């Protein structure tokens, strides 16, 4: 009997504070709960919410999100612990929300990235507007036009590498492309000379381990128990995080030091100033500069490499489209050594393939924002309460059969002018919208298309199987599980324009 009473006492001691906290939390968030009840969604467990639903391999996450939409429609609520998430896939609401000043802060999921890139342009925070304002001139059209010389030079080196490959051997083109985009970013956005770009401390380690770093961040995002510091440490993940942070810090410290040394002996024109120089001139601290430097570095070279590799892979799998793109290049550009931005704008077939890549495998699968003021959606039927995490499923929106015929098939022709006119323009938002949209859309588009033109003009690409059978996964960004595998064969001499 004594044991029974002691056990009961212990249970009450543990459970009573939890029950009281739960009652207090529900009272304090009664408005949120009242509005959330009007949004469809899967049943949630106490405390955990729907966190168990998202406990899956990274290649399964995209399918899970798609199933939510198929089951509940364009508006879905789910709980991650006490955090209310509302998933919105209606194109009109997507546009209105992303351009609203009531939803103008990044969501809590970005907190998992701050150890590597701080609270800045990508993750939000008190200084993101200032950092973005400082960096923006480096990404504008005038600067990109000047950077085009670097894009052409590095793309030519990539072309030489690919044209020398064994034509019968299949390889993952991503790593060759990654080295190219990395050099382009170092010599433009980072403001480094080519010599300095090839001698950055730990550069090779950082670019080859970026995917592992992304996987670590994504694993922590989707495993609720890893949010507990002791368990995160016990599982060895904290040690991995420290290792990655040390590599990044060493690399960005070296970039910063190289630019400080160079600025003592040279004056850089405003039009070609890299982001590091701009951050230095505006008096940011070394820590601020290093965090923002890595943020802009990795979102520029890594994302561009994935998209460019996917364009090459699509062309390898779609020989009729590769031929269209190749002939168009010869007609528009011919044998010109360098590719200009004006010429790129005339390449309509290439643009269609590029956009289909962005649709089929959106580089950012999801966008999350925090609702700072109540805002209505669905023609006034739903009100998003303050504190809600708004989730915009870009990848799923780009595969919604209401806006895309045969959405799971690769069809560049869906971007023919007549097809574009018949589709809701807000159903395609590859670079997001509003004040927090992608800073580097012009930069990345020019870099990627220049690279592809230089390669296709001299190299014929081939691949086996169907694109639709290749598995995708999300680990921060969307990529192919098994890489970007193709074969490269040098074109015949009379077609080998460089």
TrEMBL record:
It is a peripheral membrane protein. Keywords: Endoplasmic reticulum, Heme, Iron, Membrane, Metal-binding, Microsome, Monooxygenase, Oxidoreductase. GO terms for molecular function: heme binding; iron ion binding; monooxygenase activity; oxidoreductase activity, acting on paired donors, with incorporation or reduction of molecular oxygen. It holds the Pfam family p450. It is found in: Endoplasmic reticulum membrane; Microsome membrane. Heme binds at residue 438. Its cofactor is heme. Gene3D superfamilies: Cytochrome P450. GO terms for cellular component: endoplasmic reticulum membrane. It comes from the Eukaryota. Belongs to the cytochrome P450 family. May be involved in the metabolism of insect hormones and in the breakdown of synthetic insecticides. This is Cytochrome P450. It comes from Euphydryas editha (Edith's checkerspot).
